[in-house]
Write a structure and sequence with these properties.
The chain is an alpha/beta fold and about 475 residues long. Helix content is about 20%, strand content about 30%.
Length: about 475
Amino acid sequence: MTHHRGKETKNLGVLILAAGEGTRMESSLPKVLHQVGGRPMLFYTLRLANALKPQAIGVVVGHEADRVKAAVDGMVKECGVNRPVQFIHQKKALGSGNAVLESVPFLKRFKTVVVLCGDTPLLTYESIYALVHSHEGQKGQVTLLTARLANPKGYGRIVRSPLGEVQRIVEESVGSPRELTINEINSGAYCFELDALMQGLKEIGQKGPKKEHFLTDILEIIRARGGKVNAYVSQVPEEVLGVNSRIQLAAAERITNRRMLERLMLSGVTILDPHSTHVDADVEIGQDSVIYPSTILRGKTKIGRMCRIGPFTYMYDAQIGNECEIRISQLDTCRVLEKSQIGPFSNIRPESVIGPRARVGNFTEIKASRVGFGTKVNHLSYIGDAEIYEDVNIGAGTITCNYDGKAKHKTTIGAKAFVGSNVNLIAPVKIGRGAKIAAGSTVTEDVPDQALAIARARQVNKT
């Protein structure tokens, strides 16, 4: 097998184990679909497998198989997987060895097989590439990825000979006191020569009350037959941490978030307080932007250059242009064009486009609307299903009454119009270019260009 970055790796297959129920997660959602960094854990393993350029990728499914398959199909499209993906159904949850055993028809096509777990979202491409490269160089029958942890509790320990050769993996539950002092642990990632793997699968025994087959037992079988078991020790120990509980899920989230923030800071983004800032894995931020404390950026949010974001700001799938300022606000699936200002306490809802050079101020909600160039919606307003052209002033307390109880209707406001405070615009309605609406008006009919609309009763003072 010859491995070249960027080229298909001949005779290499990747098998991802994703059949587990994850009972310790206490969830109706399959374990591998729990999210880290805004993506299902399995997404990271699938992307990693694809980056190795194998001939094909196998995904072992079991618990909630149809749900996992549908999610994988979505991931394949979304992250650009260009290797063939084949599903293998593990009929009964009888351990990792059984999962690989069920995959034999898929595995037979390859000379070398990389086995990965779907619940290890922190693995890096560098380490898995190095694992495969090390396997090639040492010409053994199996190479496993290991790491040395300060606290190895909960993981299988790597027992080595006095000469440093890998002898076996001891599960914590059956390890001797001396073996439990070992801090080198098994990551669950392996690179096998197929012949040795097939022989091991034939001889693997059943363990425990459930009569399970464990993949780790194959290593001793390979050694007993004169095979060579090697290990590649990860340079990034945290990457081997698996997720079996919500506590471990939170730990993986923290590590992923730290990695994302470091990547952004190295690219020229200022993060004033990384400990209170959260970004998902797909977030992009331009150079010289500043992220203030207690800001959460989720989904595919994309922020331009020289922006000021936060504090206390939440965004999901928002697209922000260059030189924007957004303070103490919530934005969801919307676009804010360059040099616009949002907040404080603004709520920009889906399908809204703000700007450029627009201003949406305190306690204002924008929903499915276009707020044009230089337009100001400064205070205490609701703008829904509206098209507002350039240089419009929307006074405090303006409401577009877009819903009649059955359907939503559109409000159109022409360029350079002036809408006074406390105005109700009963949609569908059109306000002409340069028109003026007197404060306190309830407008039910279209207003022509340059006209003044006064829709309120004459004041009467009684004594």
